[in-house]
Specification:
Layout lengths: L1 E10 L2 H19 L2 E7 L4 H7 L7 H5 L4 E6 L7 H15 L4 E7 L15 E7 L3 E10 L7 E7 L2 H17 L3 E6 L7 H13 L6 E6 H10 L6 E4 L1 H14 L7 E5 L6 E5 L16 H13 L3 H15 L15 H19 L1
Parallel strand pairs: 1-2, 1-3, 3-12, 5-10, 8-9, 8-10
Antiparallel strand pairs: 4-5, 4-11, 6-7, 11-12
Helix pairs in contact: 1-9, 1-10, 1-11, 5-6, 7-8, 9-10, 10-11
Bound molecules: 1,4-dihydronicotinamide adenine dinucleotide (NAI) and magnesium ion.
């Protein structure tokens, strides 16, 4: 039996209720793969910010370095400006831990209908550069409060970050259906996205078996809706990946279904989190969909070479969601967070029993 040390950061809003409901599932899946999960609960997030002035300790990123992985719920609360919490926690972790790649798969599950006519079957992966672009934090404001006030937000694109994300995306495409789309806007933006086009073309030369194409982001938005079954890997900048992955999530059942991984190629420590935020509109009612969090935990196990545990979670969740009475309200059902999570737990445990 091996031990994995995981930092659990439930955060705000629906984060804690989802995290609590899912923890037994994640532990059971680990146990089934002969793994002892040593979970440490960290109280980072909006409440800590109100109490102590920051959503996480100053040395938060180094604290996480003592773990194999972090599982994160969401941050954000209506009484704190969003950018303070997002920057003080998740963006800071991504930047200071060098988590340069964000993976956001979107997969149609048989029990979860999407909004598209004809019910397209979608199986794609958004690979998003995670530390630069429009979210680099470079900029400032002048003449505060004055009618002539201006704000400047500068996008930063580096050859090394583009090339890391591109290499990761081509490797993923090679293991998948060998198709890659680079999403840019190099017709209207003449510097950053032109660099993307050039660097990705260089990286692509090392992957002749992957067919790839460059598509402008506006055209891709239409294509994701019209012909999503043709898409395999989408390689995106930080901003475009953020937006398109909410769209692809919506096509496979909504934000409640979407998982993500923040990783650095070659590094063990990653941060795994559902794509959704703290959902204050439904927080406290026990009806949030735990699927995105569970699928993020499955990605964590894959990343830590414990694929059996990840597969257990994915297959137990897919089977549970085939039952209409186990679907949460966002999927058109009436199940609570705990009802769905307990049903997944039972299936994970049954899977174990059938193997022993
Ligand atoms: P959101 O993802 O929290 O909610 C958008 C919509 O999706 C809401 O109607 C919500 O009820 C629904 N939804 C989200 N997760 C769900 C789930 N698990 N089950 C069922 N329905 C779900 O995004 P929004 O409203 O833009 O932001 C709310 C707060 O979350 C803000 O403070 C924002 O800054 C923060 N946020 C944090 C993120 C993070 O921690 N990584 C990411 C996105 C937003
Ligand atoms: Mg987003």
């Amino acid at each position: 039996m091996r031990t994995l040390k995981v930092a659990v950061i439930p955060g705000d809003g629906v984060g804690p209720e989802i995290s609590e409901a899912c923890q037994p599932v994640i532990e059971a899946a680990a146990a089934g793969a002969d793994i002892l999960l040593e979970s440490t609960h960290l109280d980072w997030g909006g409440q800590r910010h109100l109490r102590l002035g920051a959503p996480m300790p100053e040395d938060g990123p180094s604290i996480l370095r003592q773990f194999d992985a972090a599982l994160f719920g969401a941050v954000g609360r209506p009484d704190v400006p969003d950018h303070q919490l997002i920057w003080g926690l998740i963006i800071r972790l991504r930047q200071e831990l060098g988590l340069s790649v964000n993976l956001r798969p979107a997969l149609t599950l048989p029990g979860v209908p999407g909004p598209l006519r004809g019910g397209a079957t979608i199986d794609l992966l958004v690979v998003r550069e995670n530390t630069e672009g429009e979210y680099a934090g470079a900029g400032g404001r002048l003449r505060s409060g004055h009618p002539g006030e201006v704000a400047v937000e500068v996008a930063i694109h580096s050859r090394s970050a583009i090339s890391d994300a591109a290499r990761f995306a081509f490797e993923a495409a090679r293991r998948r259906r060998r198709r890659l789309h680079l999403v840019t806007k190099s017709n209207a933006m003449r510097f950053g996205y032109v660099l993307w086009d050039e660097v990705v073309a260089e990286v692509a030369a090392d992957y002749p078996e992957v067919s790839w194409e460059r598509v402008l982001v506006d055209a891709m938005a239409a294509r994701v809706v019209q012909r999503p079954e043709e898409l395999d890997v989408l390689l995106c900048s930080n901003l475009f990946g953020d937006i398109l992955s909410d769209l692809t999530a919506a096509l496979v059942g909504g934000l409640g279904m979407a998982p993500s991984a923040n990783i650095r190629p070659g590094q063990r420590l990653g941060v795994f989190e559902p794509v959704h935020g703290s959902a204050p509109d439904i927080a406290g009612r026990g009806i949030a969909n735990p699927s995105g969090y569970l699928l993020s935990a499955a990605m964590m196990f894959d990343h830590l070479e414990a694929r059996a545990a990840g597969d257990q979670i994915r297959s137990a969740l897919a089977h549970a969601l085939e039952q209409p009475e186990l679907r949460t309200p966002d999927l058109g059902g009436t199940a609570t967070t705990t009802r769905l999570a307990s049903a997944v737990l039972a299936r994970v445990q049954a899977g174990e029993a059938s193997r022993t």
